[in-house]
Amino acid sequence: MIKFFRRIRKQLLTENLPAGRTGKFNKYFFYAIGEILLVVIGILIAVQINKAYNDQGNRNLERFYLDGIVQDIKVDIDRLNENIILDSIKVRSGNFILDHFKNPTKKKDSILLTHFSNTSPITGFEPNDIVFGGIKSSGRLNIISHDSLRNNIQRYYSHGTRIADVLDENNKIHIEIYAQHLYNGQYNMNSIISALSITYAGSEGMPVVTPFDSKLFYTSKDELETKAFIDRLSMSIILSELNVRRLIIGKENAYALIDDINEYLETIK
Hints:
Oligomer: single chain
Order of helices and strands: HHHHHHHH
Number of domains: 1
């Protein structure tokens, strides 16, 4: 390219030059200007080549990061699904037990005990932000050049943190109003465990517990202790239902963000 401009410059200098010293001065003047222009053009070309090289490197790094974020989000989806299943089981088992108080004769004790134990576990979620967290800590968020996509990713992880906080708070309430009461009083989880797994309860090192008496579930729902248990279980069911709704929204957000990222990746191949 520079040789091409130099050839044109020489042609201009050899055409229609004035005679004498003025002509020689003009010739050297135009020659110097030409050399300067060639140097400037060369620098501009070099800058553009370097910029193109850096841009390509940044796009490769951007693709690498975005692919990593997609993989992290897929892990989130698996965790969200696990928690949705667990909280859904708690809701179904809790309603099963509540229904038993309305019609206790239609349920078998062994099935009832299984549902009773299903109401105890807690759920939890923490966004998997290994890649995104690394980008933030390095101060390279702008490597994701698409402003809208970058904002969507930040909103996704912000919402994921809120889900984690809500689940954590609901877990505390669940333990306070329901789970901690399963180890004392009339409806004793130790007794349920004993009934479900009597061999383990009687083995060395295991506490001796009173076998669970399912007749407790045949008592009147108007008795004070039974009524308190029904109220605690009902609140626990509500908390699990709220968890499921929030987890489903989180999963929908995860799938939507994966679609957005993959659509953008198609444009920078």
